Amino acid sequence: MCRRSPHQCDQTVRYFREIEFKEPRQLQINSARNLHFVHHLDLTRPLSQLYSSDIHHTAPQKILLLNMKVYKFGGTSVGSPERMKEVSRLITEDGEPKIVVLSAMSGTTNSLVEIADYLRKGNPEGASNMVNRLHNLYKQHLPLLYSKEETTTKVRERLDNLFLQLHEFRTREFSEADEKAILAQGEIMSTNMVTEYLKECGVKAILLPALDYMRLDVNGEPDLPYIRERLAYLLDKNPDYDIYITQGFICRNADGQIDNLQRGGSDYTASLIGAAIRANEIQIWTDIDGMHNNDPRFVEGTTPVRQLNFEEAAELAYFGAKILHPTCVQPARYAGVPVRLKNTLDPQAPGTLINNDCEEGRIKAVAAKDNITVIKIVSSRMLLATGFMCKVFNVFDKYKTSIDMITTSEVGVSLSIDNTSHLASIVDELKEVGTVVVDEGMCIVCVVGDLRWTNRGFESDATLALKNVPVRMISYGGSDHNISFLVSMEHKQAALQALQKHLF
Q1: What is the DSSP letter of 215?
Q2: CATH 3.30.2130.10 residue spans of the chain
Q3: Hey, which residues does 375 pair with through a beta bridge?
């Protein structure tokens, strides 16, 4: 069944009529921004099929190619009027058009979470006090951000309306949908404020609301065909702008309700946009100088990593490096769009480039993941038996608990987990298949780089570096880019320092 309204379908028909066909498999939109498409969309199909709920299975893809970069700034980067002005300077100084993804002002999301918590607990007065407190804070920001009274008045009225909407949540029965709508207001406020500041400075800027194009499918995953189509439409509709501001994190679900991307947040938004438009580059701006080859909190003399393969970045992110959520780089990776990590406090620094290139024969970095628990199951029934591992994995699947590392012997298996919310139940059921031993307070230390088994010596170098550190488990061979060691938390710093000394 078609999910679009007749009006939306009519808009889509008009949209395609405005397209000038250049080649049988390529089309070009007539606009100042010269938006290009590699066209794989069957226009002979009825629109009811084209926009059906299973579009990701049935509709061939249309790929938008746009000569533009995507910038993303987190909450600290837009955490004050001064920081908003600095971000505005950064995104306009090269004079190139770009899409800019913004998070909520730092602290705002926490306040909105607290407001939602008061409403969930049936305390509208507490929620109202928090709304008023946050509202007053934003009103204090306005004269510090804008120099023109007309701009200040315009933004104040818009914010007043948004905060009035927050107060109205007190008057109805609170739901999960209401909570997500409340959390979305932070990004909506910050993007409105920055967009109007840019306009006041004479920049051709426009706000592209994420709720107009960012959507989840029925499985709760980003609806990539829809995102591409809607972005293409919105960009073609607004061709004469230099800066396109949009919100990170927020979206709509398949039912049209306000939702969020959860994993990766605003970084995920930037990656999805960059993949959708085939951007030249996605830049993730934070307050750190890219990625370092070790944790500077525990190791002296760390150095910036200038380039990472997507798989290397995903490994480092998963195992503790505070750079990107492992999920958020996937759209960019599959689209072949490079991601660069940049520092707002040192804009001239090259940062860390993440792409599909692999530097052969190099160890790139070391990272650690804390609070790991190991479960060892020993049973003579495992020897030469079939189905034993299936029984073990079924227990973890039952309690939706993912496994980080796994090692096996003929009579036993050791697994590590980072989520212990169902530990007691997991252990209880595993006792039916063997003797269970639990070790808590562990840490995974991983070495990332070109670790293909054909590259001789890297695994032995890493192991030799830890000769004085007790190692509980070793995982090697599951990835071409990672070898992992499980040590106790008390030996974490010693392990990181030893690897730094011997590998770099």
Answers
A1: B
A2: 364-503
A3: 415, 438
Chain-centroid distance of CA 147 in Å reads 35
Phi, psi (degrees; rounded to nearest 5) at 171: -90, 0
Is the CB of residue 288 less than 8 Å from the CB of residue 255?
A: no
Q: Supply the pLDDT for residue 320.
A: 63
> Can you give 110-123 as a three-state secondary structure string?
HHHHHHHHHHHCCC
Question: Contact at 8 Å (CB) between 71 and 101?
Answer: yes
| Domain boundaries 364-503, corresponding CATH code | 3.30.2130.10
Give residue 325's pLDDT band: very low, low, confident or very high (50, 70, 90).
confident
Question: Which position has the higher pLDDT, 374 or 328?
Answer: 374
Q: Which residues contact 11 (CB under 8 A, 6 or more apart)?
A: 233
Query: Six-digit token pair at 433?
Result: 């298949």
* Euclidean distance between CA atoms 11 and 476, whole angstroms: 54
Burial of 217 (0-12, 13-18, 19+ CB in 10 A): middle
DSSP string of 160-175, one letter each residue: HHHHHHHHHGGGS---
**Alpha carbon distance 289, 348 (integer Å):** 10
CA-nearest of 450, 452, 465 to 496 is 465
CA 434, 437, 438 angle in degrees (round to 5)?
135
Angle at 92 between CA 86 and CA 94, to 5 degrees: 120
CA contacts within 13 A on the Cβ side of 31:
22
DSSP β-ladder status, 291-292 and 412-417: unpaired
29: DSSP letter: E
In the numeric block, which tokens belong to residue 402?
């993912």
- Indicate the average pLDDT of the chain: 85
Strands (E), 330-472: 339-343, 352-355, 363-378, 406-408, 412-417, 435-449
CA distance 321 to 356: 19
For residue 434, pLDDT over 80 is answered with yes
Are 239 and 96 contacting, i.e. CB atoms less than 8 angstroms apart?
no
Contacts of 278 (CB under 8 A, 6+ apart): 63, 64, 65, 66, 335, 337
Task: Tell me the two tokens of residue 497.
Answer: 């320092």
